[in-house]
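go over both lines:
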Amino acid sequence: MDYYIYIIIAIIISIILCLIRPIRKDLDPSEKSIITGSIGWCLVIYGLMAGFSINIFYNRYLEIRNTFITEITNLQLTYRYFKTLPNSENVILSIKNYLKSIFTDLLPNLKNKKYSEKSEQLYRDMDNEIIKYLNSNPNIFVNNILIRMGTDQKIKRLVDEINDGEYYINILIFLFIIILIPLWLSSVIDKYIQFIIDACILIILISALYICIILNNVFDDSPISIKMQGYQDLLDEMEDNEKFEK
């Protein structure tokens, strides 16, 4: 879902409401107190919801980033270890196939909040090749090789959690629109003060919503997006070694 469209629509609606504010009738003191209280309660609920969502999304962002860092580190160690072993071509080829699928299949799917079945299968093929090689060579030192297995399932689980995060954002968007209604009804005599109040509230609302959106879309292009440079570096290393051997 393109949340940025909703943010733009909300901004347009808020501007329109502010522009047509002078055409509505003046409110009596009791109505103004009700409107003021409504804005306060809406902002409190929105703030709690936004803070809760940001905390969840940020912790998940760190978990996703650390999972990828762990996986690429283990892949590097596994590749460099098997590179020194005889008859390990199938293992190295399976690692290379999985790395290629990261950019051709996994990453495009992650941007759409989906997990790649093709990459998952290539990951399993890589694990099977490692197990097959170790079973055929029982004298090989295997400590820390099998430990790296299973990161594909963790990534899959985290992708499912990203999809769950859309519900939080939808609720925030709904609250955002609800806040615009009492905000439009409120007014002060000085138009400049009114503009400053409106601008400050909208900036706070939009900033919190934007932070939630980028934290829930960590594979899109953004200042905090998850980088896959480590995978590309390992793939380049493997291709350079192949050229050197030829």
